Every structure is written in structure tokens, then in C-alpha cells.
Amino acid sequence: MAESDELRDGVSPQTDELASTLMGDALDMLAAGDPFCVLLAVQDDSGEITSYEFSDDGEEACLEAARAKVGQVAGARRCAIVYEGAVEAEGEGFADALLLEFGERGWRSYSAYSLVDGIGTGDGFTWTDPAPAGEVPLLL
């Protein structure tokens, strides 16, 4: 694994596309009221994308299993993980959010979130544009 100071900053177009697609799929599932715990998408060196869903345990255990799975995928180049959670909203306590972690081998890894409301209400479901939530540990 590369040292942290050797990692590239920013996000490649391929990683951005992988993360955006997974986030969009998760938002669609929330709008429809389709429950999930943790979703993972991994793209290998050849460009093939494999998706995983983790739901057989508690939220934290599923998230840890998804993070561990990334390192087990042969040739994994980039990954994205989404899960439901909450973020502190200014002066309003906590708000429901869809959380995203994403990264690529040789690059820094980041997180983001979208506030969500009206889960399971179809057209009544709303979300905010993704907001940055900081750097996360490198999984690749």
C-alpha cells in the first residue's frame, strides 16, 4: 500500500461515475422504500463492476464486512460504499442521510452525504446534492 503522502488527491472520472451510480441506485431504493443496510460496488482493473449487499447483521457489522470485502476482490481498482445514517444538522440535531465512501487504488479516499427525507414515499422523497464529509481510510 502506498504511503499517505504518495496518494493522489482528487477523484478520477471513473471513481466519480462508480460512486455517483451507486448513490443514485441507493436513492432510488430509499424513494421506493426498499430496505438495505450496506451496498458495495467494486470495479476491477478490467473495468468490470461487481455489486454486493450486506444485510445479515447489524449496521456496523455490515459496514465493516463491506470494507473488508473490498480487499478480498481480486484486482480491485476502485470502490464505493453507501449506507443509511444521520449527520448533525446545524442547530437542528441529527438529520437522516445517505452516506457514501469511495476511493481508488493510489488515490486518497473520501466520504460524502446527502440529506434525505420522505423515505418510501416515491415522488415525495427528497434529497440534497452530495456534500463532502472528509477523507476516510484507504481500503485499496
Properties at a glance:
single chain, 140 residues, alpha+beta, 24% helix, 40% strand
What does this structure look like?
With 140 residues, the chain is of the alpha+beta class. It contains 2 helices and 7 strands. Strands 1, 2, 3, 4, 5, 6 and 7 form a 7-stranded antiparallel sheet that branches. The longest helix is centred in the first third of the chain and has 20 residues, at 13-32. It starts with 12 loop residues before the first helix and ends with a strand. 27% of the residues are buried.
Arithmetic mean of pLDDT: 93
Question: Helical amount among residues, as a percent range?
Answer: 10-25%
How would you sum up the global shape? globular
Q: What is the radius of gyration computed over CA atoms, rounded to a whole number of angstroms? A: 15 Å
Q: Please identify the structural class as seen in this structure.
A: alpha+beta
Largest sheet: 7 strands, antiparallel
Could you give a short description of this structure?
The chain has 140 residues and is an alpha+beta fold.
Q: What is the topological layout?
A:
Elements: H1 13-32, E1 38-44, E2 49-54, H2 59-72, E3 76-89, E4 93-104, E5 109-117, E6 126-127, E7 131-136
Antiparallel strand pairs: 1-2, 1-3, 3-4, 4-5, 5-6, 5-7
